[in-house]
Fold this sequence. Notes:
two-stranded antiparallel sheet; homodimer
Amino acid sequence: MSVDLLVKKIKEKGNPSVAGLDPKVEYVPMFIREKAYKEYGKSLRGAAEAIWEYNKGLIDALCDVVPAVKPQSAFYEMYGLPGEEVLHRTIAYAKEKGLYVILDVKRNDIGSTAEAYSKAYLGTVDIDGEECEPCGVDCVTVNAYLGTDGVKPFIDDCKKYDKAIFALAKTSNPSSGELQDLMSGDKHIYEKMAEMIDKWNADTIGKSGYGAVGAVVGATYPEQAEVLRKLMTKSYFLVPGYGAQGGGAMGVKPCFNDDGLGAIVNSSRGIICAYKKGDWKEEQFAEAARAEAIRMREDLVSVI
Amino acid sequence: MSVDLLVKKIKEKGNPSVAGLDPKVEYVPMFIREKAYKEYGKSLRGAAEAIWEYNKGLIDALCDVVPAVKPQSAFYEMYGLPGEEVLHRTIAYAKEKGLYVILDVKRNDIGSTAEAYSKAYLGTVDIDGEECEPCGVDCVTVNAYLGTDGVKPFIDDCKKYDKAIFALAKTSNPSSGELQDLMSGDKHIYEKMAEMIDKWNADTIGKSGYGAVGAVVGATYPEQAEVLRKLMTKSYFLVPGYGAQGGGAMGVKPCFNDDGLGAIVNSSRGIICAYKKGDWKEEQFAEAARAEAIRMREDLVSVI
């Protein structure tokens, strides 16, 4: 199972964190932007090419520190087709550098359509006898509001292609509770979701002791994370909300199991925009990202 | 508000339905596929170009019968970058033909990321002073599991750019009830979601009497639709599940208000694969789609 690969990479790097590649064009250092605009204009293509240079620099600087990267699809879709193209380039480059790639897409739909989404990112598509790989990442995020038949195609592909998914349980945003914290009987909706995730995960357990169906659990809600950890002992947690969103290392501690495993903590702006804090020059954006990724690693390791 | 435009187009065509453009390559008539494979190979590009020819034929045949088309993003993402490119081409072509375009993407994320998704499809993006439009459809579907701050950026853009959204309330798939039918107090989760949608919709009401925040309500659950209709009187319903998924015209009746408005019913395979049923030749795929769209119109009009 692909989650075994993730665990292996986490152990190799001694680092349970993932760098979120969420590159708005305004995050890209101006000298990179100017170069791209000169060649491609202030256009979707110009923005996308600037982002590509930025991502490449970040990946080069981070690839021996972090086990994984998590591109957020929204920030590529926002730059139209050129953005999508740069997303594909970024994924290929990260894989080439040995990074585990979690594509944050939060896809969801009814069964036959979920199957198409799953093939798009985890599998291959049959074109009259030719098997083609549309994108090919290690792992995607999904939203399971539609229930089992919207998630099953992804799980089937996890088994077939050795991949993994993270399903939203308790998200990190301020209003996540409006629906997720509602009580149903004596349980919150996020607990109900956790029970479903645990069930889906049950027959996907790999050598690491963890399964292919993980959960998204926000660092901003440590008390809920503690409950969720007990409900999904064999699911890996993808933990957003560390850093820029306000969650610290103590906040993510409950997401880990006693074996020091079980969670991978994301930081996006905290890492990729590190050069905007302190005394860094723009040209040092990659070095600053690396320094922050190392600081974050030490911070996390100190609490688990 | 963009929903006024939808209502206008529905009235003009006398047809409360939308043709779902969900083109798996195996749905495309073989003569089109063979032509595309000859030029581009059995590849993602070959499949995408076949889909483009198919879509163009369908849009030409349907554009004076239906008010709207609904491309399902999954079936384009499944063919990688060439698929994405054909999605953009299809959207542009449908708009050129005067069709209202609902892009079915079911996007969802925390606030700052939802903003990126919203700009990607409803708005424009600022590239150092240049406003660029990444895609530009009339309307998208969203999943509101994350609560208000995941939806608000879309609503803001509905107001700013005159657009609309449909949020998932009760989906058409068999396992939709696992989460959506859970009771919270004396209400189902889909009712709680409906109350949220109604609230979000309240300050977006246009001249038609309907607002920018609609709801996805599956044709396969008519009893729930009846309840939901009363909870969201000013929201348009996007109704999947008619036809191939088993819902008939009587099943969708509860989705309409007494004014004969308030719902737009989707059929995807039922229309685009109509040529596979009865005595049609492959070459008549567009004619068959048109005939089915007309039959569906009459079927719907007979019950509202």
